[in-house]
Each structure stands twice: as C-alpha cells, then as structure tokens.
C-alpha cells in the first residue's frame, strides 16, 4: 500500500490531478484538485481496489488521508462520498461536526442522508482524535489572497469541480449567481466559497 507519492503535478482538472513520478503519470482523484499547483510536491495517496478498477485518491495532508480512510469504513459512504465530505475544507470541521453529533451539518453533503449521518456519528464519534488536531483551529482563519489571472475561467472550473463532487445542477445554479457577484478569486477559493454557501 502506498503512503505518498512525490512528483510533479502536470495536470489539474475538475475531478483529478496527474502526478508524474519517474516518467509515469499517475491519475489521482482528489477532494479539491485546484488546491494543488503545477509544481513538485508530496501527495498522500490511498489505493482503492475494486474488481473492475484500481483507483488512486490523493490528499494534501496525512490528516485528510486518515479521515478519508475512516469515512469509507462507514456503511453507506463510498470513496466519492468521502471526497465530497473532505472537499468542504479542513478535516477538523468534519471531526467537530461528528463529535457534536451535528446531523444537520452532515446531511448537507451530497449522498449523505439522515441514516448515513447517524451511522457516521455512531461509528466515528470519539475515534477521530488522531485524525485532526485542534477541531477549532482554522475556523476563523482568513482566506489567503492570491492574484487572479485576467481571464475568469476560475468560476467555471470551480462549478465543474462542485458538479464532480456530486452536487446537483439545481444546487450549483442556486449559488452560481452569488459567486458571480464575488470579487474575483482563484479556482480553489471559488470552490471553498461555493462549499461554504452549499453547507451554510
């Protein structure tokens, strides 16, 4: 089993990145591909093996990977559902919701209904202390400012990424007009803001 791959990100799309290492390009599905940049970096990976496919899932931090592994151990949550949960931001936010038994927060994720949210709380409450540090760290952190390019393709990339996470066209349409009114942002920031609106 792989722990991480160190290589160069050569492609970033709405669903995955391509990580090149020793002349091999690995297709890696991630919660938010636009959180990565086209440079050399270490990506924590989880290999998911099914009868019909071998899929690599990638994460920026070891904490994200550990939470992903915990989430897919819950009955009713597959890898795609776990990615959608992780795309919301830091693992600490999800851990905090589980510890507080906040079902109403958890059911806002695509593919998570009341039954699955209850199962998450039942299976994971009290078992996530090693997944994330302080569950309140970063809750009030300022978004980092990045200079935006002159052409605005970032919003459309962000909307495609939200669609890839499983949000419906209706949900995306509901927030897209609000995102258009925002000051220009990077794709990553649009995704984070969109998730904030979807989960708010």
Automatic annotation (TrEMBL):
Bilayer-spanning residue ranges: none
Molecular function GO labels: ATP binding; four-way junction DNA binding; four-way junction helicase activity
InterPro entries associated with the record: DNA_helicase_Holl-junc_RuvA_I (IPR013849), Hlx-hairpin-Hlx_DNA-bd_motif (IPR003583), NA-bd_OB-fold (IPR012340), RuvA (IPR000085), RuvA_2-like (IPR010994), RuvA_C (IPR011114), RuvA_C_sf (IPR036267)
Biological process per Gene Ontology, one example term: DNA repair
Region of interest (Domain III), residue spans: 150-200
Keyword terms of this UniProt record: ATP-binding, Cytoplasm, DNA damage, DNA recombination, DNA repair, DNA-binding, Helicase, Hydrolase, Nucleotide-binding
Entry-linked CDD domains: UBA_RuvA_C (cd14332)
Function of the protein: The RuvA-RuvB-RuvC complex processes Holliday junction (HJ) DNA during genetic recombination and DNA repair, while the RuvA-RuvB complex plays an important role in the rescue of blocked DNA replication forks via replication fork reversal (RFR). RuvA specifically binds to HJ cruciform DNA, conferring on it an open structure. The RuvB hexamer acts as an ATP-dependent pump, pulling dsDNA into and through the RuvAB complex. HJ branch migration allows RuvC to scan DNA until it finds its consensus sequence, where it cleaves and resolves the cruciform DNA.
UniProt similarity note: Belongs to the RuvA family.
Protein name stated in the entry: Holliday junction branch migration complex subunit RuvA
Species assigned in the record: Domibacillus enclensis
Organism lineage: Bacteria, Bacillati, Bacillota, Bacilli, Bacillales
Gene name, Swiss-Prot/TrEMBL: ruvA
